[in-house]
Structures are given as C-alpha cells and as structure tokens.
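Q: Here's a chain of 428 amino acids. Please give me its 3D structure as tokens.
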Amino acid sequence: MKDYPIYLLPDKFDIDEKIKSEILKDYKRFGDEGLPDNVEGYILEKYKIDLTAEYGPFTIKNPFGKSSGQLSCNINQVKADLEGGIGFVVLKTVIAQDESQHSNMAEWTVKAPKMVVEEIFSKKGQKGYTITWKGRGWDKSFQDYLKFMEEALSLSKSSNIPVIPSCKYHLPNPGEVYDEKEYRFTTKSLLSVWQRIMGNVPMALEQDFSPTLSGSDRNTDQQNIIDWLINVPLNVKKWCRKGEIVLGLKLMNALYDDEFQVQMLKTITSAGCDADYAITFNRLFDPNKVFEGKKGVAYGGWDLSDRNLRVLSAFRAWQYESGTVKKDFSLSATGNINSGRLMVEYGLRGCCNGQIHTYFQLPQKNYRARAGTRVQKALHELYFNPVNGLILTMEWLRDKKGIHSENGLIRWQDIYTFYKKQNIFKFF
C-alpha cells in the first residue's frame, strides 16, 4: 500500500504575534481561574472560531467527547463530565444478553477496575501515555445498566449534551448463527429506556468491536470480521422500526496490516452495510504484554495515532481515486488525542469529533490548570495550549491555508468537511 503523510500540519505554527499573545494570555488566565461557563461562546466571540460539531445524529457544542470505558461507568462521572463542558459522553459498554440472562460474550464482563497510567514510547521514540487494565465490559447486571442509562439520559436531556449507550452484541465464530434472542432482548430493552426519556429522538448506539477481540480465542480471521461488520447492523436494526436507531461501529485495530483496516472502512461505507457512522479505531493490542497476571493487553500512545491516521489517509486517498470522496458517512476519531493539533489531524481526514479516554487521566504535571476537574483541565489544554492547542491550530489554518467560511469565521465543520473539497495530500 502506498505511503501517505501521517501528519499534515507543520511542527510549528507561524501566526500573527498579536493573536498568539492573546492565546497565551487566555491560557494563563484560565489556567488560574478555570474555564468560563460558556467557553465555546467566548472562543466564538473573541477568536471568530465556531467549535460546533457533530456526533452521529446530534449537533454538539464542541468536538471533544469521552469514550466508553472506566471513566463513564457511574452516574457521578457522567454528571461531572456534563457539568465540566464535555461535548458528549459514551457510556461503558454493556454485554448483550437474552431474557434468561444468557450471554454468548460473557467473557467480556470482567470485573477488574484497577487501571495504571503508564508512559509508553512509540516505535519512533515519541513518549506518550497509555492506560492499562484487565477489565472489559460492564461487570454489573444488565438491569443495573438500564438503570444507569436512564439516569444518565435524564442528565443528558436537561443539559442538552448527548449521552450514548454502548453495547457488545454476539459476534459468532465462522459457521455459527447470530443469537437472535440476545439481539432482540438487548436492542428492545435499550430502546425502551431511551424512548422513555428521550421520546422520539433516534437512539444513537455504539457497537463496540473491542481491541481484546484480537487476542481472544474467538476466530477473528479477516472474512469473519467483515461478516460482523455487515451482519451486526442488520441484526440490531431488525428489532426496531426504521429510523429509531442510529448505529455506530467502534472498529478495532485488528492484528492484520493497514490494508485490512482500509478494507473495514470500505466495507462499512458500502451499500451492503447498514451502519450509520463509525469510530476509528480502538486501541492496539499487544498479545505478549502481561498485566496483573493476564497476558495480552490493549495499549495506546503515538503508535496508535500513527496507525489510525495512516489508515485514514489511505482510505481518503482511495476515495479520491474511486470518486466516492463526497459520500456522507460520519466518522468519530479516537486514539492518542492529546492536543488540539491531533484533533485537527483527525478532522482533516473527515472525523467530526474525537473520543478521549487516556488524556483525561494524565499526571497533573501535564495540565497547566490548577482549578477544575480533570475534564476541565484537559479541555483547557486542548483549547488554549499556546503551542498545540485547537485555537492556535485553527488560526493557522485560517491565516495560512485560507480555510474559513464567510466573514473570516472558521468553523470546526470547515475542517472536517475540507477533504471533500480538496485532495488534502496535495493541498498540504
């Protein structure tokens, strides 16, 4: 497969010194005082930058969300995130079951809450962070999840910030059939809770193809994975009326080459797949690393963003060549989103938003802010960092690359739709 640039942006952003000074001033000020209540409104008024984004069917106030995991498994976490300024929250992944509580994927209900924040060096020598833990999906009862989901959706409705359930449905081995009882019971149960709180708003739902699938005893040969991508959406939507569920597939990084990752993207954007959007891509998997007595763990860091961006680049290049670049299919990014700069790199490949987990758990030394929650401290860096922040990066795109809308306003939407207007690899 032809190599494409992993990173399109320059190492240093050369922008107007006056604007750079204002960003630094805000960085210091909000680091001491905390972010303003309506930080998106402040950024729009002062910098003429509109951070409005999309997640699946929803308009969101900014592109930064919390991904499914250990940081979204209780109501206090969700409440703090919504109050802290997050764009959206994806709940911990529940494991599908039938009426009798039987689950074909029961091995993913592992109770192992311990997490360790570790430094990790990429193959190119870049230092980053990864979170290591043994746990997998939701480890309490399915009824507990429904109660948690209902409470979280009530907070979502009052705050107007999307909260999205996540599920791992039955993924059969070759020759096995999809367990209709699990798909029916789980889908109808989740949809019932959603509609009780959210009314006629379509339910956004993530199907989690977790990285641990790569190291499980399930047969994850390439054709079987492609079968999952085609048939899981069909089996989920079979149990609801048209338009009731907007389904996103959280794609794993399989233990195959980049060409297969591109093939997964081609599959889900084809006419034969009934998925509505995708999250690209879950963490990498190391089958040899041992943690807490368990061999084989998922990991992140710069190797993850290198691979994800490399694959997204190859996919967009294929779209240019095949003439399908303008087809609408929403993508969420995930993987080492540790700066506004990285978020823009994903945005230039057409990712509408970014899902973050590790960056909300870094050692305190990585945040300038002393006031606020972890999410607020992280958002402060993601927006206002004077070297790699989102405001600085978007200012450079407007000033040096002419990416903006009317009257000089630059919108986040201008960035994640830009690839449809230009061949980004030639433009940059």
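Q: Can you summarize the key feature?
A: The chain has a mean pLDDT of 93.
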